[in-house]
């Protein structure tokens, strides 16, 4: 359905008058063996008008290539270094000196992401997070960089206990006192912001029976009314972000800003990954860019202009997990676009989303689910389980385990130290638990028990393999 004259006119005005509403960046992941050089990547970013980039480490080649480019950079201190950064101020000081101060200001580092989705990290690093952030910040203070470089940490939406309706958003209770209150207090004291990774795709593919595609892709739809405050939502993205705002407000941190450090939609997926397609990826990211650059804030925070980092710059062929994991890229490794969308206000002048005709009745969205983590399992028949392959090797198992407990959204709390399924404390046992959690969550469908060849399906209960499972 085309827009009305009035809505088209308002959109045209917004394109020309709200250029500073929000900001679009991109995640530059490098889990591939066929990607262009860092210098070519910088030229690609500049040619597309992308002036913000987030990287997952502090690779010297990348930071040197970004020097003098005018592109603002967010760097990452990996989860593996959280313990050292939390326990040693000298480590934090040295890390900042070598990985930040050595490049700044020629490389415009504007933020440090301390860890990534730490709450689902299988290595139990949550308890080190806030101390690590404080030590990194103190190191910035000593280098006199704290006014220009902010410190935060990206959280996954699985950190929410409730996300529907948005006004009822709340953090997981076991994380509130030990982590979120001190974390948000730190962000307030340092003038920083909360980093959030939000993927409407996960919620949509797990709940296609109640979440209309139009609602997930920012297309025209009747909207969803929050019963608690009467606000109407026209996109799942806005609803997810407001659930985080509500969770912060519940803890009396209404003044903390938010940056969306990851969001995206895959252009290809396995048969069971409903909605993964080039057309939907183009619609989601293209309409998101328009939403951010012209749309102001969210229903709950109308003045909260957002900075959003699209995930990701390239398709990365060495990533573990389902097919979608290797197909979030805006570009192919040869720098050709996977689909054509704009990244700037100027580019939006000629942008049009072209949805395919959808058969059937268009019903009003109901979305009676917790849309935060896409954790609603689909019902299936047959008894099968997913277990780790002992022949995969520790390195491959660890990488796959990290994916399952991180981006994959598996429930890995039972295999944390002291929890019910921590023993036996072996990489194979923990990987099997995580793989099966992911497999069951995905409805035991084809392709969800692969993990790059590190897992396989069995028809006997995992207890037969001496693997701890609460199933």
Automatic annotation (TrEMBL):
It comes from the Eukaryota. GO terms for biological process: carbohydrate metabolic process; defense response. Residues 1-21 form the signal peptide. It is a lipid-anchor; GPI-anchor. Gene3D superfamilies: 1.20.58.1040, Glycosidases (3.20.20.80). InterPro entries: GH (IPR017853), Glyco_hydro_17 (IPR000490), Glyco_hydro_17_plant (IPR044965), X8 (IPR012946). PROSITE patterns: GLYCOSYL_HYDROL_F17. This is glucan endo-1,3-beta-D-glucosidase.
């Amino acid at each position: 359905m085309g827009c009305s004259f009035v809505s088209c006119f308002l959109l045209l005005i917004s394109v020309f008058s709200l250029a500073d509403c929000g900001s679009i960046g991109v995640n530059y992941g490098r889990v591939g063996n066929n990607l262009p050089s860092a210098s070519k990547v910088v030229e690609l970013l500049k040619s597309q008008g992308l002036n913000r980039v987030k990287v997952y480490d502090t690779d010297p080649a990348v930071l040197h290539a970004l020097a003098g480019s005018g592109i603002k950079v967010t760097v990452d201190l990996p989860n593996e270094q959280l313990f050292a950064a939390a326990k040693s101020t000298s480590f934090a000081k040295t890390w900042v000196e070598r990985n930040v101060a050595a490049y700044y200001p020629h490389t415009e580092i504007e933020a440090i992401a301390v860890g990534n989705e730490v709450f689902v990290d299988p290595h139990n690093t949550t308890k080190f997070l806030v101390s690590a952030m404080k030590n990194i910040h103190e190191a910035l203070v000593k280098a006199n960089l704290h006014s220009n470089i902010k410190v935060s940490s990206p959280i996954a939406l699985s950190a929410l206990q409730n996300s529907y309706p948005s006004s009822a958003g709340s953090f997981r209770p076991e994380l509130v006192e030990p982590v979120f209150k001190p974390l948000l207090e730190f962000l307030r004291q340092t003038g920083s912001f909360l980093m959030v990774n939000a993927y409407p795709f996960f919620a949509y593919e797990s709940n296609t029976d109640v979440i209309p595609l139009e609602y997930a892709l920012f297309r025209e739809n009747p909207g969803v009314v929050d019963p608690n405050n009467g606000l109407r939502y026209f996109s799942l993205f806005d609803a997810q972000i407001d659930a985080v705002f509500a969770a912060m407000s519940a803890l009396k941190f209404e003044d903390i800003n938010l940056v969306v450090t990851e969001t995206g939609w895959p252009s290809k997926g396995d048969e069971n990954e409903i909605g993964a397609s080039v057309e939907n990826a183009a619609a989601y990211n293209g309409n998101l860019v328009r939403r951010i650059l012209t749309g102001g804030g969210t229903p709950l925070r109308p003045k909260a202009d957002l900075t959003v980092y699209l995930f990701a710059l390239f398709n990365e062929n060495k990533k573990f997990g389902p097919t979608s994991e290797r197909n979030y890229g805006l570009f192919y490794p040869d720098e050709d676009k996977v689909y054509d969308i704009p990244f700037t206000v100027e580019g939006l002048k000629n942008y049009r989303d072209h949805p395919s005709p959808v058969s059937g009745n268009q019903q009003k969205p109901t979305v009676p689910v917790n849309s935060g983590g896409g954790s609603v399992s689909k019902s299936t028949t047959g008894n099968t389980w997913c277990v780790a392959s002992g022949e995969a090797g520790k390195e491959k198992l660890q990488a796959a385990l990290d994916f399952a407990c991180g981006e994959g959204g598996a429930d890995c709390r039972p295999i944390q130290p002291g929890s019910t399924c921590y023993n036996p404390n072996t990489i194979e046992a923990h990987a099997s638990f995580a793989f099966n959690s992911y497999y069951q969550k995905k409805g035991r469908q084809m392709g969800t028990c692969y993990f790059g060849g590190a897992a396989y399906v069995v028809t006997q209960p995992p207890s037969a393999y001496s693997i701890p499972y609460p199933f």
